[in-house]
Amino acid sequence: MGGAVMRLERVFRRVAPSIVAFGSKVAVVQGDNAPPFPTLIGTGFFIDKRGIVATNRHVVEALMKLPPHPKAAQSTAFALVYSSVKQEGKGQALSAVIVDIVRADMIDTLTVEDGDPYYGDPAPDIAFVQ
């Protein structure tokens, strides 16, 4: 099992720069002494160098339902883009940068043309964010 863990760590190091988390800029305080931390709604991964991220439809639907910023009429949704893992002392660190979302698109319906019956969801749980 130790070998499998090492392989997973190596895979994570290679794909970590492609992982993106989506959340709300409005922070939720979890306790009296806890620092405010933004609510993370879902994740995705880069599929294109232009910044296109594949994620789930339900993630984009949740982002679209976020209330606007209380002091500006802009979206509170953001993308948290991770960098590569770096060694820090006896542990490892993963840096991140907050980026605004430019647009989000969902697949409305799936068309199957081969004539065979299709029993899947007509609106697949996939979306794209830039």
What tags apply to this protein structure?
Thrombin, subunit H, 7 strands, 2 helices, alpha+beta, 7-stranded antiparallel β-sheet, 130 residues
Please summarize what this structure is.
With 130 residues, the chain is an alpha+beta fold.
Could you describe the 3D structure shown?
By secondary structure, this protein is of the alpha+beta class. The protein has one domain (2-129): Beta Barrel (Thrombin, subunit H), CATH 2.40.10. Helices cover 17% and strands 39% of the residues. It contains two helices and seven strands; from the N terminus they run H-E-E-E-H-E-E-E-E. The chain has a seven-stranded antiparallel beta sheet with strand order 5-4-1-2-3-7-6, covered by helices on one side. Strand 4 and strand 5 form a beta hairpin. The relative contact order is 0.21.
What is the strand and helix layout of this fold?
Blueprint (H helix, E strand, L loop, with lengths): L1 H14 L3 E10 L8 E10 L6 E3 L1 H8 L12 E12 L2 E10 L3 E3 L20 E3 L1
Antiparallel strand pairs: 1-2, 1-4, 2-3, 3-7, 4-5, 6-7
